[in-house]
């Protein structure tokens, strides 16, 4: 299994616009072969011990059945369309591809 944690930082005030486009794309991603989990997450409140990602950021938590399915996801036409919709709204994007230790 391959795990992905992506940290997306929006330009100020643009996080919800990116999340709207992200949520609209989720059904297509969930239908992809090998997709186990794919969801956006934001800071939870009430935990004094956490390191917050901030009001303009969100993370994407992903699980894929293997490297081939993640590579296919990255090349999918709906991902290119999503990227085109949000490219001018994103300040920074960091993608961490991980495997079980």
Automatic annotation (TrEMBL):
Signal peptide: none annotated. PROSITE patterns: ABM. It comes from the Bacteria. Keywords: Monooxygenase, Oxidoreductase. GO terms for cellular component: cytosol. Residues 2-98 form the ABM domain. GO terms for molecular function: monooxygenase activity. Transmembrane segments: none annotated. PANTHER family: ABM DOMAIN-CONTAINING PROTEIN (PTHR33336:SF3), QUINOL MONOOXYGENASE YGIN-RELATED (PTHR33336). This is Quinol monooxygenase YgiN. It comes from Saliniramus fredricksonii.
